[in-house]
Amino acid sequence: MKPIAPTLSRAFACAALGLAAVCAHAQQTPPATGVPPTWAQGRTAEQANSKLVPHPPGLIALPAEEIPTAKLKVPAGFKVELWASGLPNARSMTIGSKGTVFIGTRFPGTVYAVVDRGGKRETHVLAKGLHRPNGVAFKDGALYVAELSRILRYDNIEDQLDHPPAPVVVFDALPKDEAHGWKFMTFGPDGKLYFQIGTPANIVVPPYTHAQIVQLDLATKTIRTVAMGVRNSVGMDFHPVTKELWFTNNARDWVNDELPNDTLNHITKKGMNFGYPFCHQGNLLDPDFGRGRTCDEFDAPDMLLGPHIAALGMRFYTGSMFPAEYKNSIFIAEHGSWNRTTKTGYLVSRVTLDKNGKPVSKEPFMTGFIDGENFWGRPADVQVMPDGALLVSDDVAGAVFRVSYPRK
Question: Where are the domains of the chain?
């Protein structure tokens, strides 16, 4: 059986799931009112009739037999296999203390749990009907889920996968903007939650509550700004040695095909500001908001990752399965471009750091999600397993892949 055309299948899913408005927002031209959708803000007069629009979201999962896993390529000695399927819009991942893999979604409103039972995966649906439950994190037996404007907690969850408890609302005072409102969330070494609050449009001067990374103290229910000028970070992790927070950042659209770059950044001091909306990638003044400013006012990124690649989930490799040179490397899920004439991204990359912790190189690690201009999958997150294997979620195929390094 041939795979259903992704665009057609997503159109059916939009109707079936009652998400026509979501799909329209993701792919249509500005409405007749003349008010552009948030993704179209910042277009020049010459770009007003551009056919570039965001790709429709992945709302269904390809059947396992229709997922072309054999097309995926990894370096010599590594092995990639389909680990779990049937997970529509699978995005951010976290791991429980008993090895359960929890997976959030952006559009369907579902949270999954996947358990490995002797080499076979068992999938549980923990929640349905949530609002953008993209962010997931685990601590002290509880699963934390970040919706658009609130944080939920599911206690003792790994012992109740078949009958999940009602969630406890731990914080519900977050902004409700849909644009860049979905969260990526992780716990820090200090036991506090870290996540982003993205800008409410492509390129605007944001409210003081937006375009930043924040820390949530669960004991006091207080939020503290960790970094400003961050357009939207959908991936972050703490360095296993220095304990400093590193994160990917998605740059603005509608400058040109080659600018600006998405970036890799890390926080070394209080009060850091990475420039949005005035300066991008550390050296590019915004054509509108950058007038009268200088990029010297802001903190520079650690590495330019490439234009419009949509760098999402990132993790330091802390396992022992891969060769020694991979230790503490950074894996990044590059979701892939829409605001570029020729597509780029659609892969998992590896960033190598030198002995001083400075990024020195970036190279493709897992490729094959795209053939020419046609993609069948889009990496959304990466997660290191207890055994040292690397999981990669794909929100278009609705699947999770496992990369291992078999020892001979």
Answer: 66-404
